[in-house]
Amino acid sequence: MSSKIKHSKWxxxxxxxxxxxxxxxxxxxxxxEYADVVINNYADAAGIxxxxxxxWFHRIRFRCKVCHADLGFxxxxxxxxxxxxxxxxxxxxxxxxxxxxxxxxxNCAMCHSGIPGTPTHFHGSTxxxxxxxxxxxxxxxx
Amino acid sequence: xxxxxxxMLLSFALTLAVAGPAxxxxxxxxxxxxxxxxxxxxxxxxxxxxxxxxxxxxxxxVAQVAGVNTFNRNLKVDxxxxxxxPEDGIHDTENEGTFxxxxxxxxxxxxxxxxxxxxxxxxxxxxxxxxxxxxxxxDSSEEPFVMDLDIVREVKASVPDVVFPHRQHTEWLAxxxxxxxxxxxxxxxxxxxxxxxxxxxxxxxxxxKVSFPITTKSCxxxxxxxxxxxxQPPLSDATLKNPWR
Lengths: 142, 245
Fold this sequence. Notes:
A: Cytochrome C3; three-stranded antiparallel beta sheet; 3 strands; B: Cytochrome C3; two-stranded antiparallel ribbon
């Protein structure tokens, strides 16, 4: 029976071996703080590092409601289409990062501190830990 | 038959080839303080933060799980807890601003600990008044509108029923964050299942991203009401329609 159907077993053997080998060879994920968000909607295209937003730092100071109800941040990484023009206008981050409540926009490197080419994602989320990657890695420009 | 024995031989050879080098890692030396603070080669001026104040005397020999049973993804792998920004793998170390940022471990001093997520129990921290995040952007005296209402959701499966506490959620969130976009405020109107949550819908909009994650350690945080003693699993349609049952 098995000799009649060609490569029926080889396919599975090779597939399993490939999956096993790839588990050792693939680079391990970064160990950033839980709930850090990398926002790279426009940053790479504009030639600046992507933004790393630390949720932990902000939730020590403000409750979720302040940003997600009053300031209109959507519950979605990269879903807010934040631009520097909006921030300077006092929208989104600019509601606090205006030199009065928190430091102002001249500190570019404090937010724009991610590794170039990192895609927009939620660090440590369950979606990230699915076996199939939830996002496609972006090719890094050199 | 010939092909079968051939393929088995090949898979055995592959097992040896792959697992051999992986298993030879043995154990690692873990200094009792956790991750040792080493000077960074790429930033000689930066002194890394001692994460849990490692003591040099006591060295623990802990079996490296990843080395012994590499195939088992359910076992714990080495993980760096609360890494400072320059060492966390997503911050660019060529950026001077990275070294100005606060390390999470400094900010978490004195806060109650948990086993997952940020390793901080945020709800407990507010309850114990160790943390007083603002409810309003500018007015630090404004208090949240807290509603103490528990919603019990009966679960079809044999796991304990879910108790949803409004109190802990209204400490952090406003009503319009969840109602009516994520949850329709009506009994029986919301279909929730774990697959949806794991894919980032319903509870998964926050849980598994910012609020406590979905791990095997955190099941009981939601699934907290034991089933009644006379509880029986519901029978499937196929069983109910079976005339010979």
